[in-house]
Every structure is written in C-alpha cells, then in structure tokens.
Amino acid sequence: MRCPILLPLLLLCTAALAQQPDIATLDVDKLMQDHDAKLIAHTQQLIAAKTDAEREALSRTLPSAAELAPTMLRVALQHPVEATSTKALVWLITRATNVPEGLTGLKMLGEPQFAGRAGLLDALDYLANSQTGVSEQVLRAVVAQNTHTEEKASATLGLGNVLVRAGEAAPAGSPQRKAALEEASKLYAEVMANYKDVTVRGMKLGDPAAAMLFELTNVSEGCQAPEIEGKDAYGATFKLSDYRGLSVVLVFWGSWCHACHGTLAAIQAGINQLPPSKAVLLAVNTDPVETLKQVLASEHIECRNWSDGYNRGPISSVWNIHSWPCIFIIDAKGVIQRKNVPRSEVDKALREVLAMP
C-alpha cells in the first residue's frame, strides 16, 4: 500500500532535481564573474550612498557567497571535467569558508581524489596564510599526494609557514614549539634543495624559503641577534651592539601601521620604571625619513630609531619581519630571548629576561 504523504514528497523532490541545471553545461567562469559583478555594483552603491540610513540598508543586502556556494559545491563534486571541478573547489576555499559549503570544500581538498590535482595554487596560498584549524592537515595531504611541481612546492612552503605560526603560538621553550619550528626548517630546506627556482606568480619560491630559513636559524629565540647598523632620521650612524650590557627591547614599527600607534610610548613608560642602566628601547622605523622626523617630533618619541625607509627596507629584510609591530627582547649578551612579544606582555617578558642568570 502506498503512503499518501510520501508520494507527494517524492514527486516534489523529483521536480526540484529536474529544475536544477545539468552540471556539465554550467559555465563556471560566468557564475564567478556574475558574483563578482554583483559585489562590485554593491560597493559602488555604498560609495554613492548619501546617508547613514542608505548605507545601513545596503549593508543588509551585500551579495553573499552563500548564494553561489551550493552550486559550486555540486560542480566540485560532480563536474566531469576535472579542471572545472577544481576551479569550483578553489573558489569555495578562497571565497566561501564562512559558509558550510566552503568548509566542506576545504576538507575535500585533503582527500586523495582532490589533493593530487593541478590548479590548486590559489587555494594553497589561502591555506598558507589562513588561521583555519584544518590548514595543516590539508597542506600535509597535498605535499604527500601531489606530483605537480608548482602545487607540491607551494604546499611545502605553505606548510612551513603554518608550522612557524603554530610554533610561535606555543609557549616559549615548549616541546611543541621546538618540534614545529624544526619541521618548518626542514620544509624550507626542502624547497631550497628541490624547488628554489620554481616560479609562482612571478616569484621564485626559493626566495621566501631562504628568508624564512635564515630567520629560523638566526632570528629566533636563543640566537645571537644579527647586527643592526644604520642611520637615524638625522643621519647619525649607530649599532645594536653599541648597547651590549643592556637588555634591549627592539621594536619594528611604522606610522602607517595602526597597531603600532602608542607602542613605543607604552614600552618606554615601562622601562622608565626599572632601575637605571638595565634596559633600553630601540626601534626600526619603516616610514620615509621625512615622515619619521615628523612623527618623532609630534609624538615626542624618546628612543633612538634606525630609519629603514619602508617595510622591506634593508634591516627589516634581514630580520624577515612580516608583521608590525614586531617586538623582540634581547638580553645583555645580545641573545634573542623573546620574539613577537605582544605589546601587552612586554613589561612581564622584559622582567623575566632581566631576572635570568
């Protein structure tokens, strides 16, 4: 006997499936272009809005990745052309991880049928620079299973970057920190040995690998701090080693960096509470020299600053600085004892270093 309720439901489901377009006939490029066009048009409307009420109303109608994500997930799973399926998967990972389909796509990339594909570079770049909990395991899968040179090289470099972040987030001196940074060093060494001339988006992967390997070997906790020799805003030359015998709080900063604002003043206030001749604040500034002069005067900055010119100036490049402000604590013997110290923890960390035998 037929169930009078189930039959209508089956008919409705069949009708819904029949209305969905054939996956093989979908123009995925056009779908993505149309979505981007909606975003651009919406942005232009926001710019043109004349009142807060208009802007508030528009903010509630922002085109969402959720509109396209279910279709892109179907394409990733079912499209008969692998390159098109991969394109949809990459879109989900780079544009839609804030919706369930995007998270599904992210996990799919760690599966054998997807991890070995070509065309994954944008997704791998996203994973290398993201904070998602699955980045490490997905990159490991691609490193293990992908035979395409660019993808394998990019995943190896990206996994190193993810492990560095994980290691630096672990407590100083912990086994987790040591293991993560040691493995990252091996991955960068592998890039240098096997993929240093592989070029992705115009950049040889050996360049960032070499910089990260130098950083882990020379600019990590327990390393003798690389010498800094340069000029201040007024042309006077000075060295980091001139301050041997004092603990040094070293800050890389720029006035262009919102998070840097007030950092030097706050740290200097803490150092001023210490006994004299115990510690000194030094800084590497990444503004044009004329801007530095103006900031020094307007903000009454007391500490000496090397003028590095911009955020990849010679000093910042050697130290491989990739976040600002970046704060180090160097002991009286010139050894880096703390790295990437949060501004709120500088006072505590400095006192710990000063108390070391």
Structure description:
The protein has 2 domains: 155 residues, no CATH class; 126 residues, Glutaredoxin (3-Layer(aba) Sandwich). β3 and β4 form a beta hairpin. The relative contact order is 0.06. The chain has 16 helices and 9 strands. A 5-stranded mixed beta sheet has the order 7-6-5-8-9, covered by helices on one side. A two-stranded antiparallel sheet has the order 1-2. By secondary structure, it is an alpha/beta fold. 54% of the residues lie in helices and 10% in strands.
Structural topology:
Blueprint: H1 6-19, H2 28-48, H3 52-59, H4 65-78, H5 82-95, H6 100-108, H7 112-115, H8 121-129, H9 135-145, H10 149-169, H11 175-194, E1 199-200, E2 203-204, H12 206-218, E3 229-231, E4 237-239, E5 247-253, H13 263-271, E6 279-285, H14 289-298, E7 304-307, H15 314-318, E8 326-330, E9 336-338, H16 346-354
Parallel strand pairs: 5-6, 6-7
Antiparallel strand pairs: 1-2, 3-4, 5-8, 8-9
Helix pairs in contact: 2-4, 4-5, 4-6, 5-6, 8-10, 9-10, 10-11, 11-12
